Amino acid sequence: MSAFHWRCSATCGHARAGMLKTAHGDVPTPTFMPVGTAGTVKAMTMDSVRSTGAGIVLGNTYHLMLRPGADRVAALGGLHKMMDWPGPILTDSGGFQVMSLGALRKLDQDGVTFQSHIDGSKHRLTPEISTQIQHKLDATITMAFDECPALPATPENLRKSMELSMRWAARSREAFVQRDGYGQFGIVQGGTERDLREYSVRALADIGFEGYAIGGLAVGEGQALMFETLDYTAPLLPPDRARYLMGVGTPDDLLGAVERGVDMFDCVMPTRAGRTARAYTERGTLNLRNARHANDTRPLSPDCDCLACARHSRAYLHHLFRADEILGPMLLTWHNLAYYQRLMRTIRAAIIADDLPETARALRAGWASEDWTPDEMPYPDLS
Amino acid sequence: MSAFHWRCSATCGHARAGMLKTAHGDVPTPTFMPVGTAGTVKAMTMDSVRSTGAGIVLGNTYHLMLRPGADRVAALGGLHKMMDWPGPILTDSGGFQVMSLGALRKLDQDGVTFQSHIDGSKHRLTPEISTQIQHKLDATITMAFDECPALPATPENLRKSMELSMRWAARSREAFVQRDGYGQFGIVQGGTERDLREYSVRALADIGFEGYAIGGLAVGEGQALMFETLDYTAPLLPPDRARYLMGVGTPDDLLGAVERGVDMFDCVMPTRAGRTARAYTERGTLNLRNARHANDTRPLSPDCDCLACARHSRAYLHHLFRADEILGPMLLTWHNLAYYQRLMRTIRAAIIADDLPETARALRAGWASEDWTPDEMPYPDLS
């Protein structure tokens, strides 16, 4: 087993195609990681996740430490074995979720004390504890423990928060047990302040991680400001390490971020949307609860090979959601994850073929043509 | 395509092994039909239903006529195509569900007028309408429209109800469009009154159906009375036609009914139990929410090849139910249906091998040994 690393295969503008090499297998990038919060990608079997072409999934430290508990996951053979995913798993540090608890958490310089949203029990996370928990979960990629402030925030508060996160990053690195094929990512903070982002990147690069995440975005600042932040942050990052934009996003967000040099993504959007009747397609989004789908015999996407598109009509999916049948969320989550994976493969192929700008135009034109009718359904040509 | 028929392959006592030949494929009997109420076996893809070995599934006329509507199902290519089940489908007549509506329905000699439980809209079912709807759904096996009285009932009320059902059976037969490989079953009524059951069987045999169902049982009378009713009813039925006991039941119910000459079953038990953390196994039932499973690394059943048993521990299933994850119901429904199908295969093989009594003893001994511990888990030898 060799060391965990990312190798660049091709570039197109700032966009990069590459390969992540890990103890649990290789992952072509750019890649989208389905979110498996509590040790399951909601409404999916792992066989169906695999069938979409996903190469790496994400687990949430906060949820798993509370239930079933890190020691229990370890006793069950680790997260890979417990959830039937032998491939790479990235776990977040718990920082983001804990910060979202509001009144239920108390921050100090050493870490955070918080109450479980499940039973009110008291718990503590520090850089050391978070790193140890991720070790027990057997995370292929461990994330540094950070503080993620809500935006908007004053520059002064952003600076204090970022500096705390950088001290915690150093402690996280110290606590990380290096193993062949395993890696740890530092997380760039600093909100939408350029000087803070620059400081944060330098601080993390000085510590040295196997990869770098950009945190603190997609928290309400809007796509334009997020892209602007990526424009100046991504080029500062070490070019030979993978870059991961946390918690992002829509298909359009992913495309724009890849164009700005990002390699990895995670987001609950495709899975959450799948449970609420919202479908992502080459031609924008559809709400399957809408009455206009009731008699539509077409599949969601003619080019999609997911089970929903291969075997069922939009009318059937509409029926399942109207009847509150579990199969609705099952099929639509599958479809959305299949679409996200197909999108990443399309983008990756375009980078390698050095024609990302053209592919990007075709993708955006497709997403903009939301109002299709049964008679006109020209799909963008991405062959 | 030849005519719909059932052929007996072997008998053991009153128990029969046979083959149901239909336009949509052959089904070895005894068989258990998973319930696909609204055009989906809840929490299952049809691929997973197929993987359990199920040969025929059931659809509910009442639910489907209200949503998505019989004409819409027909426009979508029929129930087989809509739900991705090219195999045989049996639809009930809607009679049982309508009777359960209580104050929302009004019975007359011609049929039943009722209000939808979904939106309160008014609908009507008669023998003719029910038969036509099942035709539109493209049911492989159409059920006669009957009245199913709740037990206990006075003999006089049971007699009146049964006589009405027999008149409706004749009208249902009249309305049925005969097609190669399609069949219609009459339904024996009469509660637990022997003379009424005898009268009902004669009336139906005089009309002539491709198969015969025993209705009006498993409605509160208890297993002993149900078996007693089967003891005198089944032998009266034409020996060359399939026999279907409606809405039954537990594994022990199925075994006892097969021993009394029944060939076909349907029940929501394995699917409903799967959604509420209850597992059926060779060693009785387990409640996966119970804390004793939290650290249990064993599969539910060592001999089961369902996804839950092949890849996951009881501890993981426990975790999924505690965390209200959709994958819990998905995996446990799969397991329960796999168990029911395996049970039917075991029973069928025992009939063919002419050793059903011995197999039945081993099965019952297994179910009775509910309280297993990790150290002692001797499974009944059914090889």
Automatic annotation (TrEMBL), chains A, B:
Residues 247-253, 271-275 are annotated as: RNA binding. Zn(2+) binds at residues 304, 306, 309, 335. InterPro entries: ArchSynthase1/Queuine_TRR, TGT, TGT-like_sf, tRNA_ribo_trans-like. Keywords: Glycosyltransferase, Metal-binding, Queuosine biosynthesis, Transferase, tRNA processing, Zinc. The keyword Cell cycle does not apply. It holds the Pfam family TGT. Residues 13-365 form the tRNA-guanine(15) transglycosylase-like domain. Its cofactor is Zn(2+). The keyword Ion transport does not apply. Substrate binds at residues 92-96, 146, 189, 216. It comes from the Bacteria. The active site is at 92 (proton acceptor), 266 (nucleophile). Its EC number is 2.4.2.29. GO terms for molecular function: metal ion binding; tRNA-guanosine(34) queuine transglycosylase activity. Pathway: tRNA modification; tRNA-queuosine biosynthesis. NCBIfam families: Q_tRNA_tgt, tgt_general. Homodimer. Within each dimer, one monomer is responsible for RNA recognition and catalysis, while the other monomer binds to the replacement base PreQ1. Catalyzes the base-exchange of a guanine (G) residue with the queuine precursor 7-aminomethyl-7-deazaguanine (PreQ1) at position 34 (anticodon wobble position) in tRNAs with GU(N) anticodons (tRNA-Asp, -Asn, -His and -Tyr). Catalysis occurs through a double-displacement mechanism. The nucleophile active site attacks the C1' of nucleotide 34 to detach the guanine base from the RNA, forming a covalent enzyme-RNA intermediate. The proton acceptor active site deprotonates the incoming PreQ1, allowing a nucleophilic attack on the C1' of the ribose to form the product. This is Queuine tRNA-ribosyltransferase. The lineage of its organism: Bacteria, Pseudomonadati, Pseudomonadota, Alphaproteobacteria, Acetobacterales. The gene is tgt.
